Amino acid sequence: MKSKASLAFVATLFSIFLTLGCGGGPKPYRLIAQAARSPERPAVFLYDKRLRMNLREALLLAQPDSAISVSPYVTGGHAYLVGWVSSEDKRTALERAAGTVPELLTVTSYLPVKPTGEQVPDSASELELKTRVVGSLLAASGSEKINITVEVLGTQAVLVGAVSSKGEIRRAEQAAGDTQGITGVTNFLTVPDPGQAKRFGGFLR
């Protein structure tokens, strides 16, 4: 007789294939691995993935030149925009476009205006800092995998994702902030709301 855990895994597998089909986008097996690590319920996880695709499309349609340098994320129905913009007007336009996506609960952004001239951030340095931050988070968690996405803009680390407790949020922010070269941390980590299961439970029915 199959255990409840096995049945839940099979349900997640079927839901991912049903939701994404054989079209473009992330491969189903990759999403299965992500869903297994996420503290969110499978239905909520898939709902977020669908909303993120819709969000990315809205940004590209509204601001194609700016959207390519901005990463959109959705966690528990809440949207987060992270990336450099060329002006405050571009930031406002992107936030406005995100606000038009149906079913998003909130839109929060970290979209600083990119410095120019000698102050232009070095992409290689940002990538190196990102690698350091990820290493710090892995060391702090004591795990080989984390359910946290890291972005680095200049020397500012941005953390996005769902974790299991408020304690994990504090530890992650501390680990990122203690990373050599990081001068600040923008923390968009959340703990799944138990009410999410009820709110999104009928999504795949």
Low-confidence stretches: 20-25, 197-205
Largest sheet: 3 strands, mixed
Instruction: Name the helicity range.
Output: 40-55%
The H-and-E topology, N to C, reads as HHHHEEHEHEEHEH
What spatial order of strands do you see in the largest sheet?
1-2-3
Summing up helix and strand content along with how strands pair, one would put the structural category as alpha/beta
What is the CATH architecture annotation of the domain at 118-190? 2-Layer Sandwich
Q: What is the top-level CATH class of the domain at 118-190?
A: Alpha Beta
Tally of strands: 6
CATH topology of the domain at 118-190: Histidine-containing Protein, Chain: A
- Strand fraction equals 15-25%
- Tell me, briefly, the overall form: flat
Number of helical regions: 8
Radius of gyration: 18 Å
Alpha-carbon distance between the termini?
Answer: 25 Å
What can you tell me about this protein's structure?
The protein is of the alpha/beta class and 205 residues long. Among the domains are: 1-37; 118-190, Histidine-containing Protein, Chain: A (2-Layer Sandwich). The chain is built from eight helices and six strands, in the order ααααββαβαββαβα. The protein has helices at residues 4-20, 28-37, 42-62, 64-67, 88-98, 123-141, 166-177, 195-200, and strands at 70-75, 78-83, 106-110, 148-153, 156-162, 184-190. A three-stranded mixed β-sheet has the order 1-2-3. Helix 1 packs across helix 2 (28-37) and helix 1 runs parallel beside helix 3 (42-62). It is flat, with a radius of gyration of 18 Å. The chain starts with a helix and ends in a 5-residue tail after the last helix. The model is unreliable at 20-25 and 197-205 (pLDDT under 50).
